[in-house]
Amino acid sequence: MTPRCVVIGYGPGIGAAVARRFAAAGFDVLGLARSPGRHAALAGPGIALAAADAADPAGLAAAIPPGTEVLVYNAYAAHLAPPSAQTPATLAADFAVNVGGAMAAIGAVLPGMRRAGRGTILLTGGGLALDPTHWLPAASLAIGKAGLRSLALSLHAELAPEGIHAATVTVGGQVAPGTPFDPDRIADAYLGLHRDPPGAFRAEILFRG
Questions:
Q1: Is the pTM of this model over 0.90?
Q2: N or C: which end of the chain has fewer CB within 10 A?
Q3: Nearest of 1, 14, 56, 9 to residue 30 by alpha carbon
Q4: Rounded Cα–Cα distance for residues 125 and 76 (Å)
């Protein structure tokens, strides 16, 4: 059976690059996005697109096929305002996507991974999780990425003994071709993490400028 990879938050940059990389490695890839029609030109052989909203936990979970071997969570949300201008509502709405959506997706795949005794969960992190002062208007995103990194590292410790690899790829700069943050280079890191052998699972790969 052809292994399946689901990329949540499919779009230009990391999402499409990861989908291409796993498709080239022999996976059937499903890219989930709020408006998949906008990204149809990015899809290639082995990549199908479907609609799902990371802000809708039940809908997101229902869109993930059974038997998914690799889950990539690349969705995010940000209300751009400095920390003092954020409100409980903006922080909660963004956190619901940045961390809550990831948890909904993980909850959808984890029972099957546990039955199989294997699987990979990869979460797209950001440098703001390490230095939230780097871009103060992205305060809500920084809080979300810090929470997502905590989730990834905690899941790594919990699930590795079960043969399930949870990890984060922390991208500390603007994604652009031909830079240290080239999306194809970053995508190689996702596939590399998936290929880590049991007993040698890495928890994080960090891209810095």
A1: yes
A2: N
A3: 9
A4: 10
For residue 180, the domain's CATH number is: 3.40.50.720
- What is d(CA 153, CA 168) in angstroms, rounded to the nearest whole number? 8
**What does the pLDDT profile of the chain (209 residues) look like in tens digits?**
899 999 999 999 999 999 999 999 999 999 999 999 999 898 999 999 999 999 999 999 999 999 999 999 999 999 999 999 999 999 999 999 999 999 999 999 999 999 999 999 999 999 999 999 999 999 999 999 999 999 999 999 999 999 999 999 999 999 999 999 999 999 999 999 999 999 999 999 999 97
Q: Which residues contact 91 (CB under 8 A, 6 or more apart)?
A: 140, 143
Q: Domain range for residue 117?
A: 4-207
